[in-house]
């Protein structure tokens, strides 16, 4: 993958040309009839696609490792609202009363590095394969790249998604899991997306790297579920450490803590061992070990990294197919990543 100064200059130049946007113009599809997702969808129209995206993700990962979990979370939030159609990238029209997904309250802490990754990759791909590749496919490929760059599995990404035209903040709250969700609540949401209990446990493993803001777990530290006591399913040492950074009231809203306290920058299976040791950061994470329906799989994945990698690859393919728009009658292929609603 290119990493020379000339390559970096090219990426920066192309990024500037598109002004950080994945979109604005509709592009007619090269397909004459609806098609299913396939690994070789762009084999003839943009054969160098994965190398192009890979050159961006590898450089971005070196410069800002947080781009990895940021992009994977972006992919998750995109797929769970309106399906995997890059609608999370659309911006609200200035002055409009209808906010786009990215401006929903639940998406306010999505890191800029995720959006930047897609914008940079889209700019480079457009320079070589104009009007061919959707932003939705680029996001799916970038998420896979970061999993691998952080030490996780490299799995084939099926392509052929089209970019959605609808992006509404009002559709976000009931489609995104909350940090304090019980297993019942998580299962109900995942089931509504065509995902099963195993997918819930396996996809939660993406919390093997990345960070969360205090507001996502502060209630566990002081008054868990209204008890006025901390969550008993949190290791006392972790509780003490988190309380030092996250006071019950006030505090710095920018403070974050790692999901995985043992290997926070690696994509591995330590997340599951942490749950067994009561070191899960979010209540929704730790609940996976507490609930008898999910505990057996947590124990299995904590002991077998390859089993987790294989299961995660399959679950990402399954999630990446949620509500996809394909063919000529649905969606569009944006030239840039950020079209206004």
From TrEMBL:
Required co-factors = Ca(2+); heme b
Keywords associated with the record: Calcium, Disulfide bond, Heme, Hydrogen peroxide, Iron, Metal-binding, Oxidoreductase, Peroxidase, Secreted, Signal
Query: Enzyme class, one word?
Result: oxidoreductase
Disulfide bonding pattern of the chain: 46-129, 79-84, 214-246
GO CC aspect terms? extracellular region
Record: active site? 77
Asked whether the UniProt record includes RNA-binding among its keywords, one would answer: no
Chain sites annotated for binding heme b: 207
* SUPFAM superfamilies xref list: Heme-dependent peroxidases
This enzyme catalyses: 2 a phenolic donor + H2O2 = 2 a phenolic radical donor + 2 H2O
Q: Which GO terms describe its molecular function?
A: heme binding; lactoperoxidase activity; metal ion binding
Where is this protein primarily located?
Answer: secreted
Q: Which Gene3D superfamilies match?
A: 1.10.520.10, Peroxidase, domain 2
Residues binding Ca(2+) 1, per UniProt? 78, 81, 83, 85, 87, 101
Q: Which CDD domains match?
A: secretory_peroxidase
Provide the function of this protein: Removal of H(2)O(2), oxidation of toxic reductants, biosynthesis and degradation of lignin, suberization, auxin catabolism, response to environmental stresses such as wounding, pathogen attack and oxidative stress. These functions might be dependent on each isozyme/isoform in each plant tissue.
What is the name listed in the Swiss-Prot or TrEMBL entry for this protein? Answer: Peroxidase
Organism field: Salix udensis
Name the lineage: Eukaryota, Viridiplantae, Streptophyta, Embryophyta, Tracheophyta
């Amino acid at each position: 993958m290119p990493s020379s100064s000339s390559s970096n200059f090219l990426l920066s130049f192309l990024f500037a040309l598109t002004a950080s946007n994945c979109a604005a113009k509709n592009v007619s599809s090269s397909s004459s009839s609806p098609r299913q997702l396939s690994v070789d969808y762009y084999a003839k129209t943009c054969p160098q696609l994965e190398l192009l995206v890979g050159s961006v993700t590898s450089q971005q990962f070196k410069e800002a490792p947080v781009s990895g979990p940021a992009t994977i979370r972006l992919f998750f939030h995109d797929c769970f609202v309106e399906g995997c159609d890059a609608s999370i990238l659309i911006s609200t029209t200035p002055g409009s009363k209808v906010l786009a997904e990215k401006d929903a309250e639940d998406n306010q802490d999505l890191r800029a590095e995720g959006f930047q990754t897609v914008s940079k990759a889209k700019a480079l791909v457009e320079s070589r394969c104009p009007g061919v590749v959707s932003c939705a496919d680029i996001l799916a490929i970038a998420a896979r790249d970061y999993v691998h760059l952080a030490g996780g599995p490299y799995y084939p990404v099926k392509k052929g998604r089209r970019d959605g035209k609808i992006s509404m903040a009002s559709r976000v709250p009931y489609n995104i899991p909350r940090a304090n969700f019980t297993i019942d609540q998580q299962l109900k949401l995942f089931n509504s997306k065509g995902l099963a209990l195993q997918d819930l446990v396996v996809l939660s493993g993406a919390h093997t790297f990345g960070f969360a803001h205090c507001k996502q777990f502060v209630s566990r530290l002081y008054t868990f579920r209204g008890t006025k006591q901390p969550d008993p399913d949190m290791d006392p040492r972790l509780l003490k450490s988190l309380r030092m950074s996250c006071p019950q009231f006030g505090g710095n809203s920018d403070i974050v803590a790692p999901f995985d306290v043992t290997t926070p920058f690696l994509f591995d299976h330590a997340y599951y061992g942490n749950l067994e040791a009561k070191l899960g950061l979010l209540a929704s994470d730790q609940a996976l070990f507490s609930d008898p329906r999910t505990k057996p799989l947590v124990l299995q994945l904590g002991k077998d990294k390859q089993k987790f990698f294989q299961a995660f690859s399959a679950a990402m393919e399954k999630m990446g197919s949620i509500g996809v728009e394909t063919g000529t009658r649905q969606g569009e292929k944006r030239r840039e990543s950020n079209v206004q609603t």
